[in-house]
Amino acid sequence: MRIAKEVYLFFHMLSPVSILASWYTPDHVAGPGADTDPTQITFPGCSCLQTPCLPGTCSCLRNKENYDANLRLRAIGSETERAEPVFECNILCQCSDQCKNRVVQRGLQFHLQVFKTEKKGWGLRTLEFIPKGRFVCEYAGEVLGFAEVQRRIQLQTIHDSNYIIAVREHVYNGQVIETFVDPAHIGNIGRFLNHSCEPNLLMIPVRIDSMVPKLALFAAKDILPEEELSYDYSGRFLNLMDSKNKERLGNGKPRKPCYCGAKSCAAFLPYDSSLYCPSEKPNVS
Ligand SMILES: [Zn+2]
Ligand SMILES: [Zn+2]
Ligand SMILES: [Zn+2]
């Protein structure tokens, strides 16, 4: 499958995080209705045996390198609505483990800690300085089909936390690639991240071996030790679909308040109305 150079990405998620008894997985696992098994190897590797992986010669890189020499995502902080898709070198590539196009696959590099917040239940913070652009952690869990997402959301009450995230990637021909991930029952530390209307992390889909993207969280700014880590559940750029006075979801359930404390706080947590009302779902082929 080909992906356009210009892809605009938006993400939606629903409510605050609280601790649950669940299984830990560092990587996505296939859940009910998943079209693609996230553990399946989809992409051919590059053949950079003698030369480093560079744009022009490496088939894993399009126009630009994904990361700079200090492992920072190059595209981070460009205040555009569009993001280029990131493909890392994979298990079939000829290059070594030291290749600069292998970052997310190396896993956690910073000391993170789950802690109890004042109003938001559990949260995740860093114990060390994280420079802007560095990979922080993944949001990993069960990869679901749309029907299963709707089924799980319908079962929720106001007291339940919702961890399901929908990532929509808009491909060059108008096609939309949707990925649904639920870390509630099987997931990683990503589930402890709280929403903020002024977050310090940005979620970027990164593909390594599989067409199913890793939902990789990168530092959107320099982050100091002890700072809580957060991201915008609705995606950084498209928070506009929520208006402050919409206090009820499409299904009549009340919306959850946001306690992020940011100046620009939208008062309620974002939600994805298309997950409640199938008619609002964008065309997917
Ligand atoms: Zn290569
Ligand atoms: Zn490669
Ligand atoms: Zn490589």
From TrEMBL:
Keywords: Chromatin regulator, Chromosome, Metal-binding, Methyltransferase, Nucleus, S-adenosyl-L-methionine, Signal, Transferase, Zinc
Domain Pre-SET: 44-107
Keyword Metal-binding included in the entry's annotation: yes
A GO BP annotation: methylation
Signal sequence annotation: 1-21
Entry's EC annotation: 2.1.1.357
GO molecular function: histone H3K36 dimethyltransferase activity; zinc ion binding
Top-rank lineage group of the source organism: Eukaryota
Alphabetized Pfam families for the sequence: Pre-SET, SET
Main location, first listed in the record: nucleus
Keyword Transport found: no
Annotated ranges, domain Post-SET: 254-270
Enzyme class name: transferase
Protein's UniProt name: Histone-lysine N-methyltransferase SETMAR
Organism: Equus caballus (Horse)
